[in-house]
Predict the 3D structure of the following.
Amino acid sequence: MDHQDEGKKYAIPKDNPFVGREDARPEVWAYGVRNLWRMAFDRKTGVLWAGDVGQNLYEEINLIVKGGNYGWKLREGLHPFSAKGRPAQGPDRADLEYHHSLGVCIIGGNVYRGPRLPELDGAYLYADYVTGKVWALR
């Protein structure tokens, strides 16, 4: 650990999007994710990719950005979600989703940046735990 704020065993970056807001904790950088199952930075672009396990019908991949709201628990992917069966409203921030007819438990991966498979350079590789399917996303 290289920094500590007063009274904490960690430091909050001064540019965190919620620093100084009374309605949020300053530690928050992004919110509204449900169950991230692996996050990874693209080492070339610095983009943060995350696989977010859905609840009912959709799995999603998000590009996590500073201050981003990914909608849980008002949305599942791009779709309104309500555990009580009522329509819900909320942010529509999902970068990619797939329906449970294709797979039911996303496992986030990495952006490939190796020399052995140049056709995959820059592709985000991820899988579905239940079906065993593996995809490449550009």
Strands lie at 36-41, 48-52, 58-64, 75-76, 79-80, 96-99, 106-111, 124-128, 134-137. The chain is about 0% helix and 30% strand. The two ends are 35 Å apart (CA to CA).
